[in-house]
Amino acid sequence: MDIKVPLTKGFLPDKYAKHTAPANIANGSPIISFPIQITGVPKEAKSLALTLIDWDAVPVSGFPWIHWIAANISPDVLEIPEDNSRNLTVSMVQGRNSTAGGLVGNNDPDTAWHYNGPNPPDKVHNYHLSVFALDSELPLKNGFWLNELQDAMRGHILDTAEIVLPSQN
Length: 169
Known about the structure:
Layout: E1 2-4, E2 25-26, E3 29-30, E4 36-39, E5 47-54, H1 58-61, E6 65-73, E7 79-80, H2 84-87, E8 93-94, H3 109-112, E9 125-134, H4 146-153, E10 157-167
Antiparallel strand pairs: 1-4, 2-3, 4-7, 5-6, 5-9, 6-8, 9-10
């Protein structure tokens, strides 16, 4: 399985990250999700899931920052289009990002349960996008947590693809 995301000069384009237009920011974070091309999904896959995690946030916050998690994406999808997190052109259930945790306390499902774009506070950060091909749909509803996704995927992962997306400070 392989995934591709558009990059500009090796970085996630500004439109999807910290330097986006003010109209594309909500609660201080970018909200326009980037397009993802997916190829080579195993024929036996019944669904896809994705995670977008900033491991470079650990020295800043003490934990990896969850920017986007989603599940129950059709395995026939060849591209998740731009801004799908808000528009749901491609159906998916979405989980909570790190703004929903106790430290930030965001209770707004429009921003806490969707794409929360890169906003590196100190330097270039590398954002890890992983897409998982699964042998079943997952028993998750909108607003699930990352640990619930991981528990539900356990024993059901057929293939995984990962890409590192650098984003500018």
